[in-house]
Design goal:
This protein is of the alpha+beta class. It is 21% helix and 22% strand.
């Protein structure tokens, strides 16, 4: 939520000469507040936070330098697919990217999209199964609804976007990616219950959704959290999304994904 929010570390927040909030702490202050590190969530810059995800530790003994990642700067990822893919209903396009095809691929959008999806999957699921294929869906209908919701949230100062995973039966994958989600009990039949209220059930990591996949595939979604609250037993308190337990994230409307 950024440093403007009320947190256990709020007493250490100060205002700079540039009128920006910053956290004035060291290892001793963090330990006095019973914390060892701070995780700053991306997309909170306008709330006196950070642009990208950042993890800060205050004791050098907490970190071991293990890898150096070499990258080239100033190069934008390719904008165009190397193949046309297939279409659904004349509007939705699908790019099916088998891992085996990338072994002989040069720099391509296929490679960029595949690596992005695999990176999110592997980062949040240590020891995860090998990813054999990534399918990229582009649906104008879903995109228009999503952008309208993004504009609505932006007017309220809630422009943060996150990536989440959703698990479902194999037969539901293409309809969801082509037409968007539906809220169980409102727009379609409820399948797995709604113990934490009506909404679209997702998780930050792929572990929980994999248990609902019923076919070895899960969906990676761009999402609009809006107003988020920590809740239990379905009490959402006017939230746009809520986190009941673990890394679950439930969205009030389908247009948020």
């Amino acid at each position: 939520a950024g440093m403007a929010a009320d947190t256990p570390l709020s007493k250490f927040v100060k205002i700079s000469k540039q009128d920006r909030r910053y956290l004035d702490v060291d290892m001793q202050k963090m330990r006095s507040a019973r914390f060892d590190s701070v995780f700053a969530v991306r997309g909170t810059r306008e709330k006196q936070g950070v642009l990208f995800d950042e993890m800060i530790v205050y004791d050098p003994a907490q970190a071991i330098p293990r890898f150096i990642v070499h990258f080239s700067s100033g190069v934008s990822p390719p904008l165009h697919w190397s193949s046309l893919g297939r279409t659904i209903g004349g509007r939705v396009t699908v790019q099916e990217i088998p891992a085996s095809c990338l072994q002989r691929s040069a720099d391509s959008r296929e490679l960029c999209e595949f690596n992005f999806a695999v990176g999110n999957f592997a980062r949040l699921c240590p020891g995860s199964p090998k990813v054999t294929q990534v399918d990229v869906y582009e649906s104008p209908t879903v995109s228009v609804r999503f952008q309208a919701k993004a504009d609505e949230f932006s007017k309220k100062g809630q422009s943060n976007k996150i990536w989440v995973f959703h698990g479902t039966a194999a037969a539901n994958l293409e309809p969801i990616c082509s037409e968007g989600f539906k809220v169980g009990g409102q727009e379609c039949a409820r399948v797995n219950g709604a113990v934490y209220g009506r909404g679209v059930y997702t998780a930050i990591g792929p572990g929980t959704p994999m248990g609902y996949s019923q076919g070895g595939s899960i969906i990676l979604c761009l999402a609009l959290p809006g107003k988020v609250v920590q809740v239990s037993h379905g009490h959402q308190q006017g939230a746009d999304s809520w986190q009941p337990t673990g890394d679950w994230m439930i969205f009030k409307t389908a247009e948020q994904l």
